[in-house]
Amino acid sequence: MSKHSHAAILSIFGGIVTEHIAALRDALAKLAAPSPSDEDLHQFRVTLRRLRSAWVTFAPVLPASFVAKWKPRLRALAASTGPVREWDVLLTDWLPAVQASLLDSDKAGRAWLDEAFEKSQEVRNRAWGELRAGLASPDVPEMLFELEQAVAAFHADGEPGRHSRFARARAGALRKKLIRRGRHPKRSSAPRLHRARIAAKQWRYLYEAFYPALGAHAAKRYRSHLRKLQDALGEVHDASVSLDCVADLLDEPPPLSIVSAFHKRASAARKRAGRGLRWVRSHKAL
């Protein structure tokens, strides 16, 4: 890669970071309102995930000192939003789905679920309050301002240009990472498949958010396949994490019918992930 290309790609990265910082500020303003919505938090998390993915996409051109400073800080900010997301997934998806699958005669299962709903909502509300307080502190806008200043030096005058070779090389690298992490989806551990999900998400964000800036294009069907694969791998992770989280809140362990419902859905998700990964192995990155 020539020095000119390196500088041009780094300038594109700077523009992407600046754009995402503006979106994060808008989301923070909505979250600071008297009655923020769950969608406001979702948009903040999605924007932050895309921003963090830029560090993966543009890794070959980023200064090591810049990566060492900012990757951990953004990871910590993202981690602060995790607990609320996990309780929301449990309350709006997993527990209702399990409830719908139980037999009317399963009194023990329904009683356990009723208590699970109540206690999970209490913990979620506390986590939401702690998160709002953290996001309302001056630390977050100060960090965003500091990051904005840090990438200002990357901006260069002139047209962005086309960097399709760089874009496709990064897609190829993420494809290899996904294939490596996604081996044996029917029997791999949930944490390993969660790492595969992260690779699928980073690859999809590369196509959706960064390819246009680099002057490249990816077919819609590729993005669709990656989204479905990401969702399937996410269900495997959520099945493991969600059941453990709610089980820790209750005095009684979950009845067999509850455990079976979680495992049945996770098993189906593993099968879908296997089909998605076979598709990835049989198609080169665009």
TrEMBL record:
<dbReference type="Pfam" id="PF05235">
    <property type="entry name" value="CHAD"/>
</dbReference>
<dbReference type="InterPro" id="IPR007899">
    <property type="entry name" value="CHAD_dom"/>
</dbReference>
<dbReference type="InterPro" id="IPR038186">
    <property type="entry name" value="CHAD_dom_sf"/>
</dbReference>
<feature type="domain" description="CHAD">
    <location>
        <begin position="6"/>
        <end position="285"/>
    </location>
</feature>
<protein>
    <recommendedName>
        <fullName>CHAD domain-containing protein</fullName>
    </recommendedName>
</protein>
